[in-house]
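Archive entry. Fields below.
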Amino acid sequence: MTSVLYDVPGPKARLYSLIGSAAGVLIILGILAIAVTTLAQQGIFDADRWAIFYGPMAPDVWNLIGQGILSTLAAAAVAAVIAFPLGIALCLLRISLIPWIRIPTQVVLEFLRGMPVVLMMLFVLLVFATGQFQAVVVGLTLYNAAIFAEILRAGIQSLPKGQREAGLAIGLRSFQSRMSIEFPQAVRRMLPSLVAQLVVLLKDTSLGYIVGYEELLRKIQIMADFLGPDFLFPAFFVGAAIYILINLTVSRIAIMIERRGSKKAAGGVAPPSLRTGLVVGGNDPVAKDSVEGPNKA
Amino acid sequence: MKSLITRRKSLLVAASAALALSLSACGGSSGTTTPPVASASFEAGTTMEKLNKAGTIKIGTKFDQPLFGQKGLDGKPVGFDVEMGKAIAAKLGIAPDKIEWVETVSQNRESFIEQGRVDLVIATYTINDARKEKVAFAGPYYEAGQALLVNKDDTSITKPEDVAGKKVCSVTGSTPAKTIAEKYGAEVVPAATYTACLEPLRNKQVVAVTTDNVILAGYVDKEPDAFKLASDETFTKEPYGIGLKKDDTVFRAWINDQLEGFAKDDTYKKAWEATAGKVIKTAPELPTINRY
Amino acid sequence: MDAVIASLPEYWDGFLRTLYLSVISGIIALIVGTLLAAMRVSPVAALRGFSMFYVEVARNTPLTIIFFFAAIVLPRLGVKFEQFEVAAIIALSSYTAAFIAEAVRSGVNSVPVGQAEAARSVGMTFTQVLGFIVLPQAVRTVIPPLINILIALVKNSSVAGAFFVLELFGYGRQLSNDYGNQVLWILLGVAFFYLLITVPLGLLAHFVERKVAIAR
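PREDICTED_STRUCTURE:
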């Protein structure tokens, strides 16, 4: 695929580009080599350091890592399941026509969105004296519900005015129009953002490390604490690799859902401005060009 | 080259020691702790009777303090605090596998006791007056003190005054961090765990790590070529107590009696030798119980 | 409540450090992120590949792990810093840059094709098209999401509190240990100082969003 930003490179440009690429690859390889030798000098690649993953301790070690993965996924799943309906509820309150419901909700949403998730977790942990799991889940739930609410609101506001007007015109109540006409479209339209936020939620479970929830990273740390600091690096590298792998998998799934979703959405109401982008094949989860919607009042 | 070899050797030793520790933890529960008292009977209405009837107890401990309360690879905590908990549970007629271990961190110990989420807290829990306003303490069963861990080749630091204006690593929001900053003017570098502190110390980004001497001793033991204690002297006194509900005087007196009993019948000594005693050679005496 | 007032100096110190971390990391991330976005649309395949790889990995790695890498692994590789703030800034800016790159890229995406075609037809080169025509227009669409990313950056700087930097969150933990009986007020105090940065930024984002919408 060609881009309109530049000509199809000719032989000379292709050569330069090739030389440049080769040089770049060499530089990166060089940096990697320095890193690897430095680490090797400290004995990090010694077989006995990695023996924890296949030696006599391996069953215990992998069991621990497995538990870590499970608790990471458990916290993310529970938080996501609660956060979504809560987000819908908050969104409804946020776009309510009654000012003294709408405005307090807005304040609460701003409060939740403006706060570090880890601070919320600590707050729940210390003020309500809950266990670490509850602290992580409540922190993640509150924050993500607020984000979901905002995403859905943006979705509803991006709908053509006529959708709601038509609903009201055929005699639906305001709430009925919201639920049966606007929400389904908003969810579909905002599916990419919603799914992208799920990935963020999954990633944020690692903040549990800081408040002492035994998710993957904490398990790794516990393992390294127990075995001695020399095993910190092997343990960390394996843990980081697993974390990235899980997230990449979920991201991939997210992109797949997104593609399907956008196909379906295309069958529904056309987006306000059908614009052709400069970059081909770009799915833009950050596309926040939600034009302020029709005035409700 | 030579240092590399010794390093690797010490590494193997450390690994095998850790393995031994985990093994002893698995099989050790029967060896180090007295079997539960089958015929224990308590006066009606006391906490002891309640726990005895329930046949289970919830004990809060730390999961990240080497030698005292540290979670092993098998998920069960091991350490001196844990052994104390098992010994007390045994006296209540509760077997070690009926104990529910709850992780308590420094900031939530009082509230966990107040809300009844745990029956006891045995978690390197220093007795002090501020805490006594909210909870009661049995014991002390051990007296630790704050110390400094420095690099092996560092001779410039022998006392806490030597770290004034210098960077010292400790866990965020811990009491040792506060002491070293406020009393000795050190610049505190906060970390999530004490093990995380070892890296900047090794890299000489901080001059020392500070917390209770017994915890630091664990690190010296694991890496004797890298670290040492700045001095054997401690500069605070940290009497560790067993936390329980503030108004439960009967239970507190009963635990105090048990602790004195442990000192007499060698339970105390055995618990020590099975855990912290592997590293800290000077065996402690049970401190004088403070029956307030 | 009195605990909060008694600890105002600590709060202030933490607030300034949070601000410092956010501003420096924000500036670096903006520069690096824009470069990454430019690389992503450039003719050189290697640059495109690198940019894609970097963005993909950085966006899918939890920040805690990046912090761990910057603060604990890097010194082992011989990259040592006198100030731990440097490690925090490296972690925060390398993480945030990936998100900025994505935002800028989708901004570039939002510029109508005709703009680039027109620029190219008057003989502009790739850098000229990007620098004079596309990016200036992209910036307008991109500013609201960029501000949101910067808000996230301010909040993310709290992770530094667990990695050797005593900022707002770190002080929050310390103070909640010092004043065990007033944890609620202590932590609300911390929240207040975060909101002091994030709420104005959020309002700014709303404001700009509205302005851009009108300009369209």
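CURATOR_NOTE: The two ends of chain B are 59 Å apart (CA to CA).
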